Amino acid sequence: MASGNNNNALTVKQERDARRAEKVAAMKREQARQTRNRRIGIGGGIGAAALIIVLVIVFVVTGSGSTPAPVATKAEGVQTFTGLTQNHVTGTVDYPQVPPVGGNHAAVWLNCGVYDQPVPNENAVHDLEHGAVWVTYDASQVSGDQLTALRAALPTTYIVLSPYVGLPSPVVASAWGAQIQLTGVDDTRLADFLKTYWQSPDAPEPGAACTGGVTAPGLVS
Prior knowledge:
Mean pLDDT: 82
Number of strands: 6
């Protein structure tokens, strides 16, 4: 009988230990589940934060790229002209702009440089086709030190500087398809105009020769 009681007692203890072990296992499973959920939550939070950062970067990059930087063509007073013809012709051409900014012109270009006499429109327009800028001035308003200052403000190549009769302002700068009327030699818009249109890729033949053509009377340099 004693042996049977010991066996029964051992069985009860084993059952109690088994129940305790099951409770411990259940607690461990719950802890593991909570830990796993926390990790998922942290990982999801990190992923969301990373996504937000990426979206912000994309917005900044694309947003900044969609807003072009201001250019000199936006300077007040610049006029632009489209649909200009480019035929080589003989004789004179009746240009609608003063001075002309493009259109039909002489087959031979004018040698770029500084002139103290008016130059032929038709040859000078050919220079504009090659990317030169033609700066004209009213000789009755611009002379002496002012003219010297105007010359100093210009590039040494791909420039034609000459007096012009009948200008609408003291100084006018012209490029192919663009023109600005300036108040004088100290008008800061001249520098902006040159920065944009001198040897501009928008000219029909930028970089084509500006020497080796015809020299008009009055070439100074």
